[in-house]
Fold this sequence. Notes:
Elements: H1 17-27, E1 31-35, E2 41-46, E3 50-53, E4 60-62, H2 63-75, E5 79-81, H3 84-88, H4 103-111, H5 124-133, E6 137-140, E7 148-151
Antiparallel strand pairs: 1-2, 2-3, 3-4, 5-7, 6-7
Amino acid sequence: xxxxxxxxxxxxxxxxxxxxxxxxxxxxxxxxxxxxxxxxxxxxxxxxxxxxxxxxxxxxxxxxxxxxxxxxxxxxxxxxxxxxxxxxxxxxxxxxxxxxxxxxxxxxxxxxxxxxxxxxxxxxxxxxxxxxxxxxxxxxxxxxxxxxxxxxx
Length: 153
């Protein structure tokens, strides 16, 4: 199984978000505490395919998705809205409430085989918290337009 906790994993020093997360988790024997935006701690675990989280059984934040989120945020000028509240409230992908350039819409369409007009899960809360834990971005509360991440330079 790919979601079995491991203590370390090979990684390249290539500047990718996934490589930094792999390095940081490997330095901590594959397990770390990570705070969600509201301050609630969760444990995160290193696996071959990504990062498992203690609060969402059988869900893996995949390596390629971390890299894609960071790349998309760069394309958007370094800030990317999460869409987590809209997704939680049943907004449809591509609607005014859940635009295509939010994390939840973006990863749902590109990695989770979802379609415009469908609802989605709010996976962005986990990806954003782990990216912030790794020091790649800040994870921010809504200022009227929804929660968002800002890449660090």
